[in-house]
Amino acid sequence: MPRRTRRMLAAVTGAGAALAVAAPVAVAAPQDAAAAGRPAFKMPFRCGQTWVGSNWDGHSPLHSVDWNHYDANGTPDDFGRKVLASAYGTVVASYYSTTTGYGNTIVIQHKNGWQTRYAHLSARLVGTGAQVSRGQLIGKVGKSSAKYTITPHLHYEQILNGSTVVAVVQGFAWKDFTKRGQISNNAC
């Protein structure tokens, strides 16, 4: 192999190796920063209760989770069940929406740009400005919506800097099109 070709190959290989080493660090840093700042969100329900969460095609906004509870016979029995704060924070909104379809809604601001939204409630039990602890009762499951006829469920979102993101609840990531049961360990 000619000397000039060997030098060019060495230069390219060396640059490629440097790029390969540097690239994972640059890509991983923003993800690590977001993960490090995410609160340890719990399910928004009482300890020991099993709820089925679903994130389905066409759900708005993307990445939100609808939670349903069923009795021993498999019959839905969500309506009026207690909704708990999934992490410590400040209530930045507690309102009835006539324009979004959310109905009775509570939004809690957490640290590092994180928020949670709880919608379609039958009752809002905290007002704007309230400080809430993880596991504190904030509302009750309902089917409120000024735009849609819906069955009882809790619509839940995790929001980072204004954008709804894939929710991580008790260590499980609710990726799009996921449906599964999960047992709450909130306020245990």
What does this structure look like?
The protein is an alpha+beta fold. Helix content is 19%, strand content 34%. It has one helix and 14 strands; from the N terminus they run αββββββββββββββ. It has one helix spanning 3-37; strands at 50-54, 65-68, 82-84, 89-97, 103-109, 114-121, 123-124, 131-132, 137-140, 154-160, 163-165, 168-169, 172-173, 179-183. The relative contact order is 0.22.
Map the helices and strands.
Blueprint: H1 3-37, E1 50-54, E2 65-68, E3 82-84, E4 89-97, E5 103-109, E6 114-121, E7 123-124, E8 131-132, E9 137-140, E10 154-160, E11 163-165, E12 168-169, E13 172-173, E14 179-183
Antiparallel strand pairs: 1-2, 1-14, 2-10, 3-9, 4-5, 4-8, 5-6, 6-10, 7-9, 10-11, 12-13
The Cα radius of gyration reads 22 Å
Mean pLDDT: 86
Spans of at least 5 consecutive residues whose pLDDT stays below 50 are 4-33
- Structure classification: alpha+beta
**SSE string:** HEEEEEEEEEEEEEE
Oligomer: single chain
Largest sheet: 9 strands, antiparallel
Outline type:
globular
Q: What is the strand content? A: 25-35%
Helix content: 10-25%
Distance between the termini: 70 Å
Instruction: Count all strands and give the number.
Output: 14
